[in-house]
Amino acid sequence: MFITKKMPKSLSAEAYRSLRTSIKFSSVDRPIKTLVVTSSIMGEGKSTVAGNIANILSQDGARVLMIDCDLRKPSVHYNFFITNGEGLTDVLVGNSDLKSVIKKVDDSLFLITAGTVPPNPSEILGSHGMKDLLEELAVNFDYIILDTPPVLPVTDALLLAAKADGTLIVVKSRVTKEKMVKETYDKLIDVRANVIGTVLNGCDKSIDNKYYGYYGDFKKHKEKKFKIKRK
Hints:
The protein is an alpha/beta fold. The chain has 12 helices and 7 strands.
C-alpha cells in the first residue's frame, strides 16, 4: 500500500502533494504530461515513488495512467496487487489490444503492467511503436507515469526520457553516491531529456512519525488545554 493512500495526513504524503504542485508548475510553456521516474541503480525505491506520484496526481481529479516500463524485472503489479498478464510488451508486438491491457485501479487511476518479458527490451522501448503509443494515450489521460529501469546499468530509461515531457531522478538517502547521480544526470542530458528534479527517498522517518503523531493528536491536545470549566 502506498503512503499517499495509507497515511494521507502524514508528512510523507504532504511531501508528495508538494511534489505534485512542482510537477504541475515545472513548465508553463510545455506542461508535463508524460513523466519518466528513474534512478541511478537498483534498490532506490523508484517504483514506490512512481506509484505514490500516480496516486497523488489522481487524488487531485486528474486521469492518471501508470505504465511499468521495466521490461527486464517488472514489479509494479506487485505494488498494486495486480497480476502481470498481458501488458505493454504484448501491445507493442501486436499480440494484445490496448484497451484490454489498461487496468482500472481507482476512479481516475489506471495501470498497464509490463506484460511478457521480451528478449530485446531496449529495442521495444525505443521503437516508433512506443512513441506512437504514448501519443495515443496522451489523448485520454492527463498524466502518464513511466516507471523505468535505472539509468546506469541499461539504456532503457534514456530511450524513454528522450520521448517524455519530463524526468525525475530518485536518489536514496545514504545509499546513492554523488558520482552516480552526476553520471545519471549527464547521461539524461546527453539524450536531451528534460530533467525536472530529483526526489530524495529513504530519509529518517522518526521526525515524520513524531510530527505525524503531534498533528494527529492536535485536536485532543487542544481540547484538553483549552477546556472550559463550567460553574
